[in-house]
Specification:
Belongs to the ABC-4 integral membrane protein family. FtsX subfamily. By secondary structure, this protein is of the alpha+beta class. The protein contains 9 helices and 4 strands, in the order H-H-E-H-E-H-E-H-E-H-H-H-H. The protein has 2 domains: 184 residues, no CATH class; 106 residues, Alpha-Beta Plaits (2-Layer Sandwich). A 4-stranded antiparallel beta sheet has the order 2-3-1-4. Helix 2 runs antiparallel to helix 6.
Length: 303
C-alpha cells in the first residue's frame, strides 16, 4: 500500500512539473554526455600516445659535406666512418636502446620523395643535402634525454631529434579540447543541479498541504521525502540514458563511420572503452539528482 502511494505521488509530481522535469532531463543528458565524451577523449589520447610513442624513434643526424660552412659541430666537415662506428658501438651498449637502424642519404631522399610525392617542394632537395642518420628505437621513449645529452655534442653529429616533438602538439591540442569539454560539462552540471533543486522545491511547495497532513499523522521524514527524491532520481536516470545514447551514437557515427574511414593512421578507441564508461554515467545520473533532492528537502519540508 505504501509503495502504491509513493508511486502515485511520483506520477503526480512528474505531471505537475512536466516542463521543469524535461529541462532537468535535457541538462543532465548534455552534462553527462560531455562527461562521458571527456573520459573517452582521455582514453583516446592515451591510446594514441601508446600507439605513436611505440613507433617513433630518436634520430641522430650526422654532418655531411654541405654542413661544413654552418660552423658548430659540423665545422670540420662530414662525419667520418670512425665517428659513426664509435657512436653505433656506444648505442649498442646502452640498456635503454632496443635497436639501431642506419639510414643513408639515398634512403632519406627516398623517404622524402614518398612523403612529398610530386609536389613542388620535392624538387628543392637533392640526396646529397640530406644527412645520414641512426634511427634509435628506445625501450622507453621517455628516456630520449639520455640519448640527447650523450650524443648531441659529439663530433660529427649535426642534431639529435626526438620524433615525438612532431606529434606532441597534436596531443596538447587534444588535451586542451578535453579540458574545455570538462569545463563545459561542469557548467552544465551546475545548471542541472540548480534545475533539480528548483524542481524539487516547486514540487514540494505545490504539495505542502499533503506533506503537512502526513507529518501530523506520524509519517517519518524519509517517507515524506521519498516521492520527491525518486522523482529527481527518475529524471536524472532518464537524462543519463539519453547521455548514453549520445555517447554510443557519437562513437558509431563520428568515429566508426567517419574518422576511422578518413584517418587511417590513428588507432581509435574500441567499444570496450565505451562500455566501461556507460555504467558510470548511469550511476551518476541516478545518484546525483537523488542526493541533490535529499539535501534540498531537509530544510524545505520542515512543517
Amino acid at each position: 500500500m505504501r509503495a502504491q502511494f509513493v508511486l502515485s505521488e511520483i506520477g503526480v509530481g512528474l505531471r505537475r512539473n512536466l516542463t521543469m522535469t524535461f529541462a532537468v532531463i535535457v541538462s543532465v543528458a548534455l552534462s553527462l554526455g560531455l562527461f562521458g565524451a571527456s573520459l573517452l577523449m582521455r582514453d583516446q589520447v592515451s591510446t594514441m600516445k601508446g600507439y605513436w610513442y611505440d613507433k617513433v624513434n630518436v634520430s641522430i643526424f650526422f654532418c655531411n659535406k654541405n654542413d661544413a660552412e654552418t660552423g658548430s659541430h659540423c665545422a670540420k666537415g662530414a662525419a667520418t666512418q670512425q665517428q659513426k662506428n664509435d657512436i653505433k658501438a656506444e648505442l649498442d651498449r646502452l640498456p635503454i636502446v632496443q635497436n639501431v637502424q642506419y639510414e643513408s642519404s639515398d634512403q632519406a631522399y627516398k623517404h622524402y620523395k614518398e612523403q612529398f610525392g610530386d609536389t613542388p617542394v620535392a624538387g628543392l632537395v637533392t640526396p646529397d643535402q640530406l644527412p645520414e642518420s641512426f634511427r634509435v628505437k628506445l625501450k622507453d621513449p621517455t628516456k630520449y634525454e639520455v640519448i640527447k645529452s650523450a650524443f648531441s655534442e659529439r663530433p660529427g653529429v649535426q642534431e639529435v631529434q626526438d620524433q615525438r616533438d612532431t606529434i606532441e602538439p597534436l596531443f596538447n591540442l587534444l588535451n586542451g579540447m578535453n579540458i574545455a569539454a570538462l569545463v563545459v560539462m561542469a557548467l552544465m552540471l551546475v545548471v542541472a543541479l540548480m534545475l533539480i533543486v528548483n524542481t524539487v522545491r516547486v514540487s514540494a511547495f505545490s504539495r505542502r498541504r499533503e506533506t503537512g497532513i502526513m507529518r501530523l499523522v506520524g509519517a517519518s521524514s524519509f517517507y515524506i521525502q521519498m516521492p520527491f527524491i525518486l522523482e529527481a532520481a527518475i529524471a536524472g536516470l532518464l537524462g543519463a540514458v539519453f547521455a548514453c545514447v549520445l555517447i554510443v551514437g557519437g562513437k558509431w557515427v563520428l568515429i566508426n563511420n567517419w574518422l576511422a574511414t578518413k584517418i587511417l593512421v590513428i588507432k581509435f578507441i574500441g567499444w570496450d572503452s565505451v562500455v566501461a564508461v556507460l555504467p558510470l554515467v548511469l550511476l551518476i545520473g541516478l545518484l546525483m539528482p537523488a542526493l541533490a533532492a535529499f539535501f534540498a528537502l531537509r530544510k524545505y519540508l520542515k512543517v
